């Protein structure tokens, strides 16, 4: 299973510092949506230039203009770009067309999708490389939140998936057991006193 760091920091400088600390332990470096909104796609270019050997993931969470938004992110240096599963099929098809043109990939984020299993199968059929079983930061803060729903959706869908939703050292083994191709960890790494040590610990917990 691959490890992805989600960099939900707000400046390119902070992202470059964080990426430099954790790169030895992660496979995929994600620029979070708030970072891209704050700094623009220049941040994607800066991270790809600093880490050309890593998979750079631009969490655009595109909802419309799929081909155009994906195209500008791939041109900026992204290897993977997210489109929302709640978007229409034509948006996903357009984004996949841009990915094909660049030789890159689209990940469909299933945040807010009620029937994640069915939508996961639909968007993989449309050409997404994998789906993200995702509970966002707001959902994680809701009373009674648990990772179980995401784990079981991933297991049931029988398609390639990543899992994001407050993944930590306490839960990453369960993410791997559920069959995820990628575990995404944001706060568990960037909020740690020692992000490099936190990433190393997550890496050590998986194979
Ligand atoms: O995309 C996101 C929020 O929409 C986050 O980057 C993702 O949820 C991973 O971060 P965390 O591990 O802190 O949940």
From TrEMBL:
SMART domains: OMPdecase (SM00934). The keyword Lyase applies. CDD domains: KGPDC_HPS (cd04726). Its EC number is 4.1.2.43. GO terms for biological process: 'de novo' pyrimidine nucleobase biosynthetic process; L-ascorbic acid catabolic process. Signal peptide: none annotated. It holds the Pfam family OMPdecase. It is an enzyme of class 4 (lyase). Belongs to the HPS/KGPDC family. HPS subfamily. This is 3-hexulose-6-phosphate synthase.
């Amino acid at each position: 299973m691959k490890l992805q760091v989600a960099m939900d920091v707000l400046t390119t400088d902070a992202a470059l510092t964080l990426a430099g600390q954790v790169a030895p332990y992660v496979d995929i470096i994600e620029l979070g949506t708030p970072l891209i909104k704050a700094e623009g796609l220049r941040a994607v270019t800066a991270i790809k230039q600093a880490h050309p050997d890593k998979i750079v993931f631009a969490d655009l969470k595109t909802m419309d203009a799929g081909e155009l938004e994906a195209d500008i992110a791939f041109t900026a240096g992204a290897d993977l770009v997210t489109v929302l599963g709640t978007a229409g099929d034509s948006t996903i098809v357009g984004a996949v067309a841009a990915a094909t043109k660049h030789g890159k990939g689209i990940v469909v984020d299933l945040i807010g999708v009620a029937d994640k299993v069915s939508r996961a199968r639909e968007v993989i059929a449309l050409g997404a490389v994998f789906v993200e079983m995702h509970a966002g930061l707001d959902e994680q803060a809701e009373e009674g939140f648990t990772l179980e729903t995401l784990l079981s959706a991933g297991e049931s869908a029988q398609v390639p998936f990543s899992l994001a939703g407050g993944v930590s050292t306490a839960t990453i083994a369960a993410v791997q057991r559920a069959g995820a191709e990628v575990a995404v960890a944001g706060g568990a790494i960037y909020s740690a006193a020692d992000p490099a040590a936190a990433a190393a610990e997550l890496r050590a917990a998986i194979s």
